[in-house]
Every structure is written in C-alpha cells, then in structure tokens.
Amino acid sequence: xxxxxxxxxxxLVFTLPVRQRRRVLFADLVSTAVFPLAITGSTAVVPExxxxxxxxxxxxxWIVLAYNGLFAxxxxxxxxxxxxxxxxxxxxxxxxxxxxxxxxxxxxxxxASLVALRAVxxxxxxxxxxxxxxxxxxxxxxxxxxxVYGYMGAVLGSSLALGPIVAQGLMAVGGWPLVFVVPAAVxxxxxxxxxxxPALRSPEVPDDFDLAGAVLFGVTIAAAVTALGLGPGSxxxxxxxxxxxxxxxxxxxxxxxxxxxAADPAIPVDLLRIPAYxxxxxxxxxxxxxxxxxxxxxxxxxxxxxxxxxxxxxxxSLLTVPSTLFPLLAARLARRWARPLVACGLFACAAAALVxxxxxxxxxxxxxxxxxxxxxxxxxxxxDGQALKYVPYQRGGxxxxxFGTVRxxxxxxxLAAATGVMAALGPASGMAVAGAVCLLAGVVVRRSVPSxxx
Length: 454
What we know:
Largest sheet: none
CATH class of the largest domain: Mainly Alpha
Helix content: over 70%
Number of domains: 2
Radius of gyration: 21 Å
CATH architecture of the largest domain: Up-down Bundle
Structural class: mainly alpha
Number of strands: 0
Number of helices: 18
C-alpha cells in the first residue's frame, strides 16, 4: 500500500478522551516553547559565561555547538526509540533531562562542565522533540493535524520571536544562571502535565532494531552540523572543521553500507521517497534558513545605512513578530491552499532577498523584513502539518525526527554558506544565498506536491 494513499492516512491512532488529548497537546506545546529559548539563551550568555567561569576561552562557542550537535545526533535515534517504547514516559524523561541539566548548568563550576551539561541537554531536547511528535501523531488523526501544528507554529514562532528579549531580560534580572533555570522550570511543567496520561505504547513493535544505523546517522549529522557551525570567527583552527568533515563523509559512506544490509533500516527512507514529504521538509529548512540569515544580516545592513536603534528594533520586529500572530490563521488557510501558500511564501522571500541586492535603502530594508516576516508567519507550522500527515502513527517519532533533521541540516548549511559568501562579498550577499535556497524550495514544492493537497 502506498504511504501517501488515503487508506494509509486513515491508520488508527490511540483513542483518548478529548480532555486527555488536550493534555497531550498542552504538554508538547509547553516543551516546544523551551527549545528556541535554550538556543537564544545559550547564545546570549556565551560572552558573560566565558568571562566569569574558569576554562579556555575557546570552549565558549561549544556551549551552543555541543547542544546543537548532540540534538542533531540523537534526534533520529530518539524518534526510533520513542516509537518502540511508552511515548508518554519517553517524552517526560526527555523533559526531565532538560530540567535537571538546566538547573545544574546554573551551578557549573567551569566551562568544561557547562559544555558537558549542554551536550546532555541536547540529548534531552531530542527526546522531547521526538517523543512529543510521536505522542501527537499517535493521538491526533491526519485530518486534525493541520490545526494541531497551527498551535505548534504559534508557540514556536512566539518563542523564536521573544527568545532574545526574554534571554536579555533574564540576564538583567538574575545574571546568566537564570537563563538556564527558567527553561528548566518550564520543562518541569511539561513533565507534570504528563502525569496520569496513558503510556501510548504501540502494540506493533518490530523485533529488529537497526541500532548501528541510528548511531551512525547521528554521528554523521552531528559532525556535519558542528563543522558547519565552526565558521569564521569561532576561534577554532581550520583543521578542526576539516576533521569533522572527514568524519561526516566517512560516517555517511559507512551508513549507506549498513542501511543497505539492514532488514528494518533506522532511516525511514520510504518517507523520503514521497515527493510531498521531501518538498515540505525542504521548504521549512529554507524558511528557517532565511530567518537566521536575516537576523544576522539585516542589522548589519541597517548599521551601514545609519538606522538608529529604534528603526533597527522595528525592522527586527517586522521579521519576527508575524510568527507570533499568524500561525493559527495559517492553519486555517492550509485547509485549502497549503501548497500555494508555502510556494508563494518561498517565492516572496526570494524576491525580498533579490531587492536587497539592488538597493540598501532603509525603506527597502524595512519592506524586505516585513515581507519575509509575513511569509514566515503565514507558513509557520504548515509544512510540518502537511508533511507529517503522510507518517503513520506507529512511526511518528522517526518520521518527525527525520523531518526535523532535514530542516536543521538545510538551515545550518544555508547559514554556513551565507557566512562564507558574506566574508568575501559583503552582508547583502548572505541574503542572496538564503533567497536562492527559498527559490529552489519553492520550485520543488510547486512541482512535487500534488494539487489535491493544496
């Protein structure tokens, strides 16, 4: 039976009362809010922590890199395990790891200890993401997932937009330790929200477990993501990223050999064969790529044009605030116009990036930020909901983890490429890179997603 067929999409899910399903959704929404704050908070505290804690200054960037790398490494393995165990318990355990490591991070005696704790927190975050998706796909049928991922988009967008502000506010109130303690408390709330919920253990668990494939995949992705994160200005000698690239290439080659021989491969390649799943994964990575590049580039362009702090704040608000306002509207629009909504959003982002190559006028900067922000807000959560309707509940964790891995990989590659091009050609060229990725993703969505899914 084809994975994209209507019969496959109607696969049975766990039947829960409405109140319990809402508790599952609430727990996952609370946990989802932690992830962007963990990233922006860790990034914000790097200078202060490096100055205050003993240890080599070169360890500072690894507070963020260790978290991102271990998150990427553990995501697929966490998804496979979540589908094979009690989903609720696995999700709660991940949040507990995030909570405990967050509290311990506030009392870290040195930089090395803090980096180690952030690495463990990255594993916990992967468990949260995979376990939460596995729960959601297990209790909500495909026809309800657009609405659910609309809520997800609203929470994620709000957290992304407010994360830097919240991090700076926490540092002003209680110093850098508070930036780790508050997300830990929120993760603790997610744990409490799962108390009394059913375990959601699938009765259909294959006997074989491709542990080697899942671990190799994690090592390959972690090495690649970390190598790309060690760009110019990281203070790491060139041979550091070079060695990681060698590890990533060797791991990829070995992974292909292992997966070809596995009876039940860890990587759900059959999902990647679905054009719509693949296209929507590409699109969400492109959107996140132009967001992170825009957050880095637009302030630089504004400074060149002499924009004051007030105008710069307005520009960044135009880029981020729509993601807090429009995701629920986006979920409604996606019921009938998902494909044109996503494709037009990608093309509009590419056009905004093109305008910035032609002029750096302050009005153009504000308009570009507004257009990109509006496109991000009106598509937040839409690609996720559209792609994951092809994933059966028995493989919800693995399917969502693979989707997240594609998104993170493309986002990281886009930022790395933009950073390299900017070093040679200037800030505006970074937006050109991100715009080109959006253009490519828009073409793929337009050609690959069937019109009946629009």
